[in-house]
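Deviations from the work plan: none for this task. Representative record:
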Amino acid sequence: MWLSDKKIVVLVSGRGTNLQALIEATQSGYIPGKISLVVSDNPQAFALERARRASIPTLILDYNSFPHKRVYEDALLQALEEENPYLVCLAGYMRIVGKNIIIRFRERIMNIHPSLLPAFPGLEAQRQALEYGVKVSGCTVHLVDEGMDTGPIILQVSCPVEDEDTVESLSERILQHEHQIYPQAVKLFLEDKLNVVGRRVFIKKE
Ligand code: GRF
């Protein structure tokens, strides 16, 4: 298989700025693969519009139209199996990925989180950081396991928390870094340069 044939499926729920960073990194050739499908659990997600503008197929699995989580998860698993991607990227996807999907795509699902994990997992990480009073925060790209933001860490970058910061200003500063390290991590993954040993992820040297 040519490197550029490697398929990426991106799961989204919202505005999709990380999706946009990934789209641009595939279009420029920085990431040696293509986003073959964008799946949203939210029909209103602006990320869908970003995908359409880039001529990327989209699939809406409207969470609220499913009778319960299990049925939604089955539909998502089926869609992923049909697409059979090399990598699944969560980009502002607001749900915990079900166990069956994790098992089927073990070590092939990545997430970006706006804190230096293991600090401040879950929702509103930037608010948590401000309320705790840390002086440094940042973002983390990690593999997804059964826990909440607990999987092996691939890349992290830090940035300062300023006295004047609000949730919005800190989120924006962190977001600029997210848009750098998510494409970097995806590139490394597609180039098969990541070596996962237990909780540790090593980047293979040339
Ligand atoms: C980002 O801060 C990401 O780290 C978190 O959700 C936010 C999504 O933003 N998981 P966007 O939809 O990529 O703009």
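Residues 18 and 36 are 16 Å apart (CA to CA).
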